[in-house]
Amino acid sequence: xxxxxxxxxxxxxxxxxxxxxxxxxxxxxxxxxxxxxxxxxxxxxxxxxxxxxxxxxxxxxxxxxxxxxxxxxxxxx
Length: 77
Description:
By secondary structure, this protein is mainly alpha-helical. Helices cover 52% and strands 0% of the residues. It contains two helices and no strands. It has helices at 11-20, 32-61. The longest helix is centred in the middle third of the chain and has 30 residues, at 32-61.
């Protein structure tokens, strides 16, 4: 997976997606189709959670002087 080219994921967006599409068990009244749809929605949110985590780990590990998350140069102190 080419994480370097993946767009930066804003934390407020990720928080909103986690709230709208929480991890949950299927309800007995859900149809098979409902289960597949909800499973797919959550799978995307899980993927974005993982990418956000990796992006933030990479920021902490990168040396000073690298390009910052907003595309500008970071400041060397």
